[in-house]
Every structure is written in structure tokens, then in C-alpha cells.
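Suppose you are handed a protein chain with no further information: no name, no annotation, nothing but its sequence. What can you learn? This example shows the usual starting point.
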Amino acid sequence: MTPLAPRQQLLLGLILAALMAATRGQHFAVLSLPDASLAVFFLAGVWLRPAWAFAALFAVSTLIDAVAVGWAGVGAACITPAYAMLVPAYGALWAAGRWYAGRHVHAWSTLAPLVLAAVLGGTVSEVFSTGGYYFFSGTFPAPSLEGLFAGVAKYLPATLTHLAFYLGLASLAWLALTLGLSAIRGARTRVAAQ
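A reasonable first move is to predict its three-dimensional structure. Written in C-alpha cells, the prediction is:
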């Protein structure tokens, strides 16, 4: 993928943070849409070059949860030692996005690596997220690998569906933006040539 200018990356980072804030859990969700956090980290891996962007987005997600628990009265059931497992969970999606960015081309053939990155990144993320909560939250008296597999099997379909939904929207928006900018450049070239 062609690297974006720093200002474009900053704008996309702010848009991704706003999308996460608008949809994260049901804390303050302004939109009745599934949580976009996983897609946000994947897309950040694709579009945002500085490594600090990952830390900044993780800080935003943590701040949203902290405000929800401390200020909005949302239950703190998910704020346990297992919360730390969200770092590798989101990191898996960031890494999958980075991997895909290196393979992106403006052709239909880019769909195969996109799907591969999304499915593998989403699956690894779910294993860390569900596994972290299952093993480290203190909620389950006798965690086992069988219980982990059952939890992943229960939540993975929704995880991949929500990820596909947001990545599909982002792909359509990116395509529209790319085609629109290309048309504008073409019109300017024609006018300049006259």
C-alpha cells in the first residue's frame, strides 16, 4: 500500500478513535452498531505507520472503559487482570493489518490476502481475548482447554462477522475515495492540458 502522508494518517487515526468511541460496547455507544474496536486496530495496522499509534488507540479504548466504569456506572466485570490480554488481542489485529498493507494492490487479487489477514488476525485476537478472560478473570473456578475452545467457538463467529462488516465498509469507503480522487486528478489534468 502506498504510504499515507502524516496529516492523512493523523486524520484517519482520529476517525478510527471516534468510530471506536461511538461503538465500543454499550458504554456510550451513540450508534446501535457492533463494537468496531477490532476493525479499528486492524485498519490502524493498515493505514497508520507510527508504532505509537497502537499505544494511543489502546489508551483511547482503556479510557473509554475506565470512564464507563468509573463515571457512567457500567459494571466492572471485564476490568480484571485479564484486561491486560487485550494488548496481544489488539496487537494481533494490528499485526494482521500491517501484514496486509504490505500485500495490498489496487486489484481484485487483494481480496485473498485481506480475507486471510482478517480471519487469522480475528481468530488470534479472539483466542487472546476470550482466553485471557477465561483463564485470568477469576470468574471461572476450573478453567480448562476444553472450556477455552468452547468459549472461542461461541464468540468467534460474531467476532469475524463484525470484523468483516467494518472492513467491508472501510474497503468501500477507500474505493470511493480513491476513485473520487483519481477522477478529480484526471479532470485537473484535462483542464491544464487545454
